[in-house]
Amino acid sequence: MSTVDPSLSNRDLRPTAPAQRTWGFYNYTALWFSMCMEITTYQLASSLIAKGMDWKQAIGTVLLGNLIVLIPMLLNAHAGAKYGIPFPVFIRAPFGVRGANLAAILRAVVACGWFGIQSWIGGNAIDAMLVVIWPGAQRNPAILWTCFLGFWLLNMVVVWRGVESIRRLQAFGAPFMFVMAFALLLWVHFKAGSFGTMLATPSRFHSRGEFLRVFFPSLTAMVGYWATLALNIPDFTRYSRSQSAQSWGQAFGLPVAMVLYTFIGIAVTSASAVLFGHAIWNPIELIGAFHQPVVAFIALVAILVATLNVNIGANVVSPSNDFSNLYPRLISFRTGGLITGFLGLAMCPWKLLATPDAYIFGWLVGYSALLGPVAGIMVADYFLIRKTELDVNSLYHREGIYYYAKGINLRAMIALVAGVAIALVGLAVQHLRYLYDYAWFVGFFAAGAIYVTLMWLAAPSPFTERAQETA
Fold it and tell me: Which residues lie below 8 Å from residue 431, measured CB to CB, with a gap of 6+?
């Protein structure tokens, strides 16, 4: 089986060559700093303040959620660095060479929604910049939609230039955003008078029970925020020089960057409550409220760079590979990126960002019920069933050990459907609401346990014997 099946491979899906493994510790740290330091991260933190938390409760929620999601992130990253394979190829091991398409498309659809959200934010930032220069453009829907589509087109240009342009964009964006984020914090500190004033907004919860009713779904949302990257992180670690480079870069970059930037979001949102009498969770709206044209223009340029950074890194690489995996002979990375862009428009991102409730409890918690089970099956298969050993050649062939029954592993499909169903039942049955509030956790552990059980029960089958020989 030396010749790769062309229906399962193209240039973008094949294992990376040694010459392509150029990413080191700094690149992965920069990747996370540039992806964390953007508007939706800010809104993630500020929405916790808007929901009633004080700054210590919000920071603790964010930190705990990101430490939790870092675990499956690093576990799934291992295969990418070891074998140089992208996410849609990696999941052929548990789901089968054809069944992997379902899991990949679940991830891709969520990425399309995020792509639309980020494009809408970027369009709003450009619109706000125009208002600073030309006040007459304020509240003009035609101008806003033109800015939105213009930023969307800019993203498409970067996609067309390929993955290496993404690495260069992240390397530049990370230090730039680090400086701009702290500049924003110092500017608002100057306006509010002191950090004590900025962080003076008290918790609105009068009992532990009130707090926990918001805390648990918020924690799930924190995990759900990066649940997408926890799946497709092999798309990035396949370019790593070593396991240590990607693991240490991520272990440092993700929690540190998230805590730093969410603190900025929390502090600035708390300051807005002091300065304006109510919390303003949208930074674009907040910047405009100060009526400082020069400062507003600089801040909005920073928002634009940040949004472009994260949109390309987090929301294009994975779905481009996922769509390519559907039909490798016809869909390249570039074509997959274009598909992502158009689907992002179709998902009406302006509705997903309408309120903190729609953003956290609708969008983030909702899709975590879909991605948690996929992550659970991936981790269980790679570490418990395969013991980190994969037959890479069989991942690209229909007659290999990952072909299962006509290319589909029914055990993985059963585990996936069961994990999603268990998590979503909380929406239909009120006294089981906690299952939905913990959607990612419920789906991850339920699907993983069901998958391992079904695979072990099938131990006498020819497949299992071959898998054990391969391992």
Answer: none
Q: Tell me: the pLDDT tens digits for 118-166?
A: 888 888 878 877 777 777 777 788 888 898 889 888 888 877 775 555 5
Neighbours of 127 (CB within 10 A): 24
Full set of structural domains in the chain with CATH: 11-354 (1.10.4160.10)
Provide the terminal-to-terminal Cα distance of the chain, rounded to the nearest Å. 18
> How far, in Å, are 61, 254, 356, 368, 395 from residue 361 at the CA level?
15, 23, 8, 10, 37
Per-residue tokens: 278: 């109510």
The answer to whether the CB of 437 falls within 8 A of the CB of 216 is yes
The conformation of residue 381, written as its DSSP 8-state character, comes to: I
Q: Is there a contact between 161 and 329 (Cβ–Cβ < 8 Å)?
A: no
Model pLDDT for residues 230-277, shown as the tens digit of each residue:
888 998 999 999 999 999 999 999 999 888 888 887 777 777 777 777
* β-strand partners of 240: 23
* CA–CA distance, 245 with 84 (Å, rounded to integer): 14
Count the neighbouring beta carbons within 10 Å of the beta carbon of residue 164: 11
- Concatenate the DSSP letters of all residues of 310-330 into one string: HHHHHHTHHHHHHHHHHSTTT
| E-state strands within 268-307 | none
Q: Are 351 and 42 in contact (CB under 8 A)?
A: no
Length of the chain: 471
Say how far apart CA 396 and CA 250 lie, in whole Å. 29
Q: Which is nearest to 371 in space by CA: 72, 64, 92, 44?
A: 72
Structure tokens at 352: 């997903």
| Alpha helices (H) in 9-54, listed in sequence order | 25-36, 39-50
pLDDT, tens digit (0-9, with 9 covering 90-100), for 42-77? 777 777 877 888 888 888 998 999 999 999 999 999
220's tokens:
């799930």
Distance CA 355, CA 202 (A): 21
CA distance 406 to 398: 8
CB atoms within 10 A of CB 430: 7
To 5 degrees, how large is the angle CA 362–CA 112–CA 6? 140
Beta carbons of 398 and 5 less than 8 angstroms apart: yes
- The DSSP secondary structure of 274-290, one letter per residue, reads HHHSS----HHHHHHHT
